[in-house]
Amino acid sequence: MRKIFLLRGAPGSGKSSFISRHHLQPYAISRDQIRLLLANLTYYYEEDTDCLRQVIPRSANEQTEKVVDYLVEEKMKRGETVIVDSTHISVETIEHYQPWLERYRYELFVVDLMYHKNLQNLLNRNEIRRQYDWVKPEVVREMYLSYQDNFDLPEWAHVINPNQMAKVLSQRESNLDHFAHVVAIPDQMAEADFPHVHISNFYFSFNDKFTAKYGTYRNVVTIGKTKDEIINQFRLPYFVFKFHHKHFLISAYPIRNELLDPIKKVKGVWTYSTGLVNLADFVAPFPSSKPQHVHQFNLSKLQPDRLLHIW
Description:
Rossmann fold; 18 strands; single chain; 2 domains
């Protein structure tokens, strides 16, 4: 949830192949594709081979950057997962996103596709790319050298290799076994009936007054009930957890299996494939899946003025 992924690599490093291989085309913002929407292919004369090559024009770079920025921020406003397909070689191109990270509470991941690639490998790959994806060899060389000079990135930019993408997109359950009790506070519970918050217990709040009073406590998590609460107030749309060696999900509405699957179960830990789901879909009033693949506690099925003691 609330993650932006920047693909990093010179031309020929495999960025587009990575997106295609992981079926990420519907989620990716591609600078080259936007350039092609703004301007048609143009011709470049390559003196070494005495031939013309059709290439993506760079004349629309300034407009392209504005469009990319607009699309990225629009997705972040909605809390959607963002994937940007561009070179992102210099540190400055990555720091460009920092103001949005703070404004929309995002984590930024850099998918490094230059890892274990040498210059000759990049040049060879460049020569066999689709005709208009080809770039001048000197551009590849410059980017490779620039990558070497910009290897160290800011601490807030989490660098991952391509094989780690699926793991980062998934949601691992939290282990609450060390708590004595887990309690849910429905939205219509009177303040006089609030439980005393104790460090040995864990609390889920759907109640605005309870959140205002205890929401900053480390053992209190507020679950959003509406699209506005989740997107604009940054409340969690759901929480997956393990308690007494059993696996649970708590949310305002039932979350269908299609939004959670596949669920990976490794050594007693469940991990859910929710990384590409829009936040608003978690509060859509879909009917429950039958059977559900994880036991759920949903506000829509709770008594609105009565505490729920889980276990």
